[in-house]
Amino acid sequence: GGELEPIEGWKTNFKYNYNYGWGDELQTPKPVIIDAADTPAGNIGNKTTGSVEEYNQSRFILFHVYTSYEKMFGKHYIKGLIGYEQEYHHYEMLKSSKMDLISPEVVAIRAATGAETLDDRKSHWATQGIFGRLNYNYAEKYLLEFSARYDGSSKFASESRWGFFPSFSAG
């Protein structure tokens, strides 16, 4: 990100963020036999050995920019701001498992004889919006402010995806 001020009173700020994450996990469930002195041996782990593998990745992108201008004219002060922002997130996961390893020393899905399970997850969302604000101040005594946002989100149904949110204050 950064800030530019091409002329006095006019500033432009921007920020870009890209985040990529990934991970993998290997689990090796197995029986855990306990033997107490005066009770028969018991299993506190899984019924059998197995392999559980999971892979995931995610991406997040953010872009944010706004520009503002402020000026004093005698006892009159004005400031205006307008901006744009956008976010995007994507996630994927794949998980597979198989029990009954042929040998507990070789932990792999292909080295097991039991039933195989496969699961996946995918999700994504995005937001986008423009925003603005206008301030007026007379002699540090009378204040007016108008703000508004027009935002959209993929998290809502298409007919309810966008909204306009104004506000006004005086004092």
Provide a count of the helices: 0
- Give the CA-CA distance, first to last residue: 35 Å
Mean pLDDT: 94
The helicity comes to: under 10%
SSE run: EEEEEEEEE
User: Strand arrangement, largest sheet?
Assistant: 1-2-5-6-7-8-9
Which descriptor suits the 3D outline?
elongated
Tell me what portion of residues adopts beta-strand conformation. over 45%
Structural class determined from secondary elements? mainly beta
Q: State Rg.
A: 29 Å
Largest sheet: 7 strands, antiparallel
Number of strands: 9
- Low-confidence blocks of residues: none
Structure, explained:
There is one protein chain. The protein is an all-beta fold and 171 residues long. The chain starts with a strand and ends with a strand. The model has no long low-confidence stretch (mean pLDDT 94). A hairpin with a 7-residue loop joins strand 3 (33-34) and strand 4 (42-43). The protein has strands at 2-7, 10-27, 33-34, 42-43, 50-73, 76-99, 116-138, 142-153, 162-170. A seven-stranded antiparallel beta sheet has the order 1-2-5-6-7-8-9, with no helix packed on it. Strands 3-4 form a two-stranded antiparallel ribbon. Helix content is 0%, strand content 70%. The chain is elongated, with a radius of gyration of 29 Å.
Which characteristics define this entry?
171 residues; 7-stranded antiparallel beta sheet; two-stranded antiparallel sheet; 0% helix; 70% strand; elongated
